[in-house]
Write a structure and sequence with these properties.
two-stranded antiparallel sheet
Length: about 300
């Protein structure tokens, strides 16, 4: 349910930033992205955190700052990295130079801190029937997270637990096992990304960076901040702390890549509209349509939809 809700919210984010055509194509790419599809159906915290983070982005773009702060706090309460969304919001606000909105953005930050500190003890009490200080709880979580060092595990354990360096996640498609537990013999290894998505990750990010730096496009600036805050940030964190990480840490950045990919595909389609009738126009349009068909087809071929049948 939260995975489906994320796609809907993602559509409206892309519509705010790039228009209806970009939104439709971006949502299509996200729906048929195997990595996102798999983890939306697993009993993990990430899908909930991402859903609330996306809501925070949408409320921010809609200038509903209190709701943006509250949903950002909810993202952090589901999983602390959800709070990285504040870097996207503040970075985009600084780039947009809406100094008149200083108080409103301050209200967003204040509401996120207030909701986070108020709700955490309540959620802890519901779960444990005990009251805890939210400050001590956050400190405890950070200490525990920092104690899981990558170097303390031998290679075979890292492989079994799915540990990886951040820069590994876009260098190979890898594989993820799905089963009933670590001791299960019924493990199913599936491809991590939809193949075409994997191939286009780096070109899409480079295109997004070009559009953000050279042309200062709104969607590109927001998407680049999104990708940087939710994925690239893990690289210096890993280098400094030796924190053990996993492939699914890339999950929050999938939406940014889908949006960049959609804008690139839409750019090619627009080029075909400006091209005179003839072989070149047919070639460009055929290329776009073929890519979309192959994208959806490869998802159906490599996803878990038919593995368990």
């Amino acid at each position: 349910m939260f995975g489906i809700a994320s796609v809907v919210v993602f559509y409206f984010i892309c519509r705010k930033l790039g228009g209806k055509g970009t939104a439709l194509l971006s949502a299509f790419l996200l729906v048929f992205e195997n990595f996102y599809f798999i983890y939306s159906g697993l009993a993990m915290l990430d899908v909930f955190s991402i859903a609330f983070m996306l809501c925070s982005f949408l409320f921010f773009l809609d200038e509903r700052y209190i709701l943006s702060g509250a949903t950002l706090a909810a993202a952090g309460l589901c999983k602390l990295p959800g709070l990285f969304g504040i870097l996207v919001i503040l970075g985009y606000w600084a780039w947009d130079r809406k100094r008149a909105d200083f108080r409103k953005v301050g209200l967003l930050v204040f509401s996120s801190v207030l909701v986070f500190l108020l709700l955490m003890p309540i959620m802890d009490f519901v779960a444990t029937d005990q009251w805890f200080s939210p400050v001590s709880r956050v400190h405890d979580m950070l200490v525990r997270a920092g104690s899981l060092k990558y170097s303390q595990f031998p290679p075979e354990v890292r492989a079994a637990m799915g540990m990886s360096y951040p820069w590994d996640w876009i260098l190979h498609t890898g594989g993820e096992w799905l089963g009933s537990g670590w001791a299960s013999d019924a493990r199913v290894v599936c491809l991590k990304y939809t193949p075409m998505f994997f191939v286009l990750i780096v070109p899409s990010v480079l295109y997004m960076a070009y559009e953000a730096i050279a042309k200062r496009k709104r969607w590109a600036v927001f998407g680049l901040l999104w990708f940087g805050a939710t994925y690239v940030l893990w690289i210096p964190i890993e280098l400094v702390t030796d924190r053990a990480m996993y492939a699914f840490y890339f999950l929050p950045a999938v939406g940014a890549v889908c949006m960049a990919m959609a804008c690139g595909i839409q750019r090619i389609w627009q080029m075909s509209n400006r091209t005179k009738e003839g072989a070149m126009r047919r070639l460009l349009r055929g290329l776009v349509l073929s890519c979309l068909v192959l994208y959806a087809g490869s998802f159906l071929l490599y996803s878990t939809l038919f593995i368990f049948v």
